[in-house]
């Protein structure tokens, strides 16, 4: 079931292109990543989807309705967290969440949401929070309405490894519970670990959409790489998969001490470069 359906969307800022001919769809219960370098159109796309930008051409349907027909009730259905948190610096962590919770017809308990994101400093003023704490609080704010769709812009930026792992696990659990997550990032590792599908966007247009693992198989070499010890030295050899079982050199190496054997696959960044001719950063 499509919960987001975008067809031929165009947005220019004067003579500067935001997106042009943007077309894609997102299914219920998937994590969909928009992957591209700065200036590719990621932020314009997410601002259109959350109704910050309203003067665009084309068709956008969200949760079965034309986006332009949604009233303020739309914000009871979605959660939004941008790269730069929208918080009140002179209020405490808990006061911020209680204030934002008052906007919704129904919402999760603020203290419970803080537990979900691993933020324990409920009485600390926001102005004293680290960047990572601020990101977690902004995500907690986005989770308050228990949204059907969660829109995230660079969701793990500024988080330490432990916090990033916690948030990844939370997002995967939400997906498994039927929530839809739309995220934008230039971080290939985030996209690779989290996303069911990724879309490569460059110059306001989507160039390729697919599952990360399937893209690696489809666009990678059909080969294996083997790392082994030979007379006390570590050596590496690569062999095509075709007729591998009859390859005498490969079979001879298997008699030696094998340290590692793996298929050869490109990274998402390498695929992005191959498809678009651009680097992610």
Please give a structural write-up.
This is ATP-binding protein. It comes from Pyrococcus kukulkanii. It is found in: Cell membrane. It is a single chain. This protein is α/β, with parallel strands linked by helices and 281 residues long. It has three domains: 1-77 and 147-211 and 271-281, Rossmann fold (3-Layer(aba) Sandwich); 87-143, no CATH class; 221-264. Helices cover 30% and strands 31% of the residues. It is built from nine helices and 13 strands. It has helices spanning 42-49, 93-101, 110-117, 131-143, 161-176, 188-194, 212-219, 248-253, 268-276, and strands spanning 2-13, 16-27, 31-35, 57-62, 65-66, 78-81, 149-153, 180-185, 197-202, 205-210, 223-230, 233-240, 257-263. Strands 6-7-8-3-9-10 form a six-stranded mixed β-sheet, with helices on both faces. The chain has a four-stranded antiparallel β-sheet with strand order 2-1-4-5, with helices on one face. Helix 3 (110-117) crosses helix 4. The longest helix has 16 residues, at 161-176. The chain is globular. The two termini are 33 Å apart. The model has no long low-confidence stretch (mean pLDDT 93).
């Amino acid at each position: 079931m499509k919960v987001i359906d975008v067809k031929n969307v165009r947005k220019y800022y004067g003579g500067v292109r935001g997106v042009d001919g943007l077309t894609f769809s997102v299914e219920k219960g998937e994590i969909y990543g928009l992957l591209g370098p700065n200036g590719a159109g990621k932020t314009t796309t997410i601002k259109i989807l959350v109704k910050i930008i309203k003067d665009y051409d084309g068709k956008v349907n969200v949760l079965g309705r034309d986006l332009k027909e949604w009233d303020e009730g739309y914000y009871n259905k979605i959660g939004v967290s941008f790269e730069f948190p929208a918080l009140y610096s002179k209020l405490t962590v808990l006061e911020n969440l209680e204030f934002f919770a008052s906007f919704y017809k129904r919402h999760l308990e603020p203290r419970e949401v803080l537990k979900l994101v691993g933020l324990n400093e409920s009485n600390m003023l926001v102005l004293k929070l680290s960047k990572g704490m601020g990101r977690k609080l902004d995500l907690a704010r986005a989770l308050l309405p228990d949204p059907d769709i969660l829109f995230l812009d660079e969701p793990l930026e500024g988080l330490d490894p432990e916090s990033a792992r916690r948030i990844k696990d939370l997002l995967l659990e939400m997906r498994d519970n039927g929530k839809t997550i739309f995220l934008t990032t230039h971080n290939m590792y985030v996209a690779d670990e989290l996303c069911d599908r990724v879309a490569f966007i460059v110059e306001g247009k989507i160039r390729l959409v697919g599952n990360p693992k399937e893209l690696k198989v489809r666009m990678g070499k059909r080969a294996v790489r083997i790392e082994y010890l030979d007379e006390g030295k570590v050596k590496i050899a690569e062999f095509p998969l075709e007729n591998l079982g009859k390859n005498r050199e490969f079979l001879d190496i298997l008699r030696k001490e094998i340290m590692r054997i793996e298929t050869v696959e490109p990274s998402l960044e390498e695929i992005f470069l191959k498809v678009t001719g651009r680097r992610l950063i």
